[in-house]
Amino acid sequence: MIFSELQLKIQNAKELDFGTIFNDSIELFKKVWVQGLVMLLLTFVLMIPFYVLMYAPLIAMGIFNPERMEQGMAPEEVFAFIIPFYLLMLVFSFFAVIIAFGMKAGFYRICKTKDFNEATSDDYFYFFKKPYLGKTIKMAAATTGISFLAMLLCVFPMFYVIIPVTLMNVIYAFNPDLSVSNIIKAGFDLGNKKWFITFGLIVVAGALAQLVGLVMCFVGIFITASFAYLPPYFLYKEIIGFDDKDDIMKIGNE
What we know:
globular
């Protein structure tokens, strides 16, 4: 979809019904809860090597020089250790954002195939492949930068940008050929247009996912967590839609 067409659809966005989107999210969750669980598990598995690398120095010191760990480090040694450790944490955090962003975008594509009963395989790593890996990294960097800047400006801006940033993920999932700047602009345009209903849906869906997950014991949270990702998908579907599906529906109505 070209950017001007996407903007036009956002500008002419119809009124949305909270209950309809919420009920549609529940119905779709019945079809994709397995894929949502797999997506979350894959995300955690991909992050394990970074955890190992981050804590490797501490583990090595504990194994090969346990006496040193018990005695503690001198102040200059602590300072020399903390700076590289925190730098490594920042690098790890950025890689974690890339992994989470790419996996979530892939999950949205899977949601579309299940929603329209398309007979295709579940491609969780679609946005880590060569055509899109670079843009996935750029989008992760952009959303991280926007969120970090909002945090520096205090709490309220963070509440505001969380909606456009969330919508950027689903817009990227179905428009990966758009430029990063256009995806960001579309995310803010759609976020400004439908901020309150999006915020309400995300909060209610997230709270319900956690509540049901806790009822199912702690492991249940992993099963229900992906439910919170579904309302943005239906916002995109209702406002922007999918060109191929729209054409099919038009033919059927003629």
